[in-house]
Amino acid sequence: MKRFVFLALVAMSLSVPTFAERIKDIASFGGVRSNQLIGYGLVVGLDGSGDKQSSSPFTVQSMSNMLSQLGVQVPAGVRIDPKNAAAVMITSSLPAFARRGQSIDVTVSSMGDAKSLRGGTLLLSPLRGADGQVYAMAQGNVVIGGAGASAAGSKVQINQLNAGRIPNGATVEREVNSSLNEGPVVQLELTESDFTTANRAVQAINKNFGYDTARAIDGRMIEVRAPQDPSQRVSFLARLENIHVEPGEVSPLVIINARTGSVVMNKAVTIDPVAVAHGNLSVTINNTPQVSQPAPFSNGRTVVTNQADISVKQDQGKVVSLPRGANLNQVVNALNAVGATPADLVSVLQAMKAAGALRAELQII
């Protein structure tokens, strides 16, 4: 009976599924990508919070050119005050497989000295790609997620007022051809280069679709044979991206932000036997003014002197010994035990790395 219970427990432990991720979560298809778009335009209808003529002459030039294209000739020497208009840069992202007539969101950002774009309307502006071609046209009311008011030299502002978004503010006018349906194979590109993950992905794909369906080119790219018919290829890719793969173990890594003092470690970080000691040295200086008052009718002068009191205090450092192969939880608990602050962790971890005890890559950003 005991043997049967033992075998049942072993079978249950073997049947527990390991942590796995879908291919769509760790990889992307080659040729399926978004394209960045950029444009220049004018936002009008501002309540006196636009650009100034003296510091933003390009806004005046843009307004003159726009009026000329609309058939309005501005007489020479006439001053245009752009206080109700602002020059802006327009950015957007053209998603993969975007079709002509599809709407996309745009972001509008002031490039002059406008105080606010709140309540403004973006005039029709072209959005160009890296090749200089126009891929979309943008126009619409700018949505600002903030508010502000000023009076009598006082100012109150909530959030940023010089940048906003126009939901569905651009219409796609040119399509970008995708190479996904070209050729007998499709390419899978892993998000993180790892030979173990690439090999496991190839094995999982061949297990589901048959031998020699996929092959790894390197630690990042995998080639997969796919049907030529577009409808069959879409169905094939839908099944492909939902295959579960167990990723390879991550490399131990410690990331330190030297500006903020924040430290991030992944679960693979381990250490060799090491003793860590940490103590704080504090210096306190107190300055006490003392007044020396002369006797009456002595024709003396009142003198103020400073009495300095300097004290040096060094906290008793604690020594903590860490065993070999300590995991992340033990490392964090030990560093907290010696009283290390987030700023001190930077020095402690660097010292552990220099001593050869920290089994991880130390990356400072």
From TrEMBL:
Keywords: Bacterial flagellum, Cell projection, Cilium, Flagellum, Signal. Residues 1-20 form the signal peptide. It is found in: Bacterial flagellum basal body. Assembles around the rod to form the L-ring and probably protects the motor/basal body from shearing forces during rotation. Belongs to the FlgI family. PANTHER family: FLAGELLAR P-RING PERIPLASMIC PROTEIN FLGI (PTHR30381), FLAGELLAR P-RING PROTEIN (PTHR30381:SF0). This is Flagellar P-ring protein. It comes from Crenobacter oryzisoli. The gene is flgI.
